[in-house]
Amino acid sequence: MMDDALKELLALRDIDEKMVRIRKNLKDKPARLGSQKREVDTAEQGLAGVRDQVKQLQQIVDRKNVALRAAEDDVNKLSIQLNALKTNEEYQTMQRQIEAKKGEISGIEDEVLESMEVVEKAKIDLPGREAKLKQERQLLAGKEEDLTAELDTMRKQMEDLEAEWQAKSEAVDSQALARYETLRSSLGHTALVAVSPEGICQGCYTKVTSNVLNTAVAGRSIDCNNCHRLIYLPS
After folding, report:
1. Structure confidence by residue, pLDDT tens digits, 196-208
2. pLDDT tens, 88-104?
3. Spatial separation of the C-alpha atoms in residues 5 and 230, rounded to whole Å
């Protein structure tokens, strides 16, 4: 038969276990949401990077178009001058200049086309990415709102459990309570653990002495001779 002092300590231990679970959730749930928030922030930074890339590429295209028009103007001017040349040598030299300018124009055109393809692809992709990011932001905002309400509920539960713990502790034998609180300060909810009928402490998983086990069998709590937790034999 379990004595009253042990029953009262077990009631405190049960409250401690509930508080441990709530404390874990108070810590873990915001951490998980924080991880999702970082993922959304990373996606937003990536999208901003794409926007910057498009802007920079467009500026490059604009500059190359200016260079292209200048090169085309040079070809036109050289072509006009070509007809006014007197000697064959001058004519050939001018022809080479014109061909070089045409090669330059061809290279610029290729670069403009390549840059424009990248710009156009990014512009096509951007609306979809922006819509997806907006949706993720909305989902995150909803989760943050739900989490705030959930955390408030858990904090209220903690307050209620702490008040319950204090109320029930008043009925516990002062010496037993002092011993439990001392262990609880370092071991938390594992200050009071079961011992198996074979004498294996469920805190340190070693075998207790026969005297210690006999006390537990008698329905009282006792220190484990190995880890010094309070142990008891479940009924």
Report:
1. 999 999 999 999 9
2. 888 888 889 989 989 99
3. 12
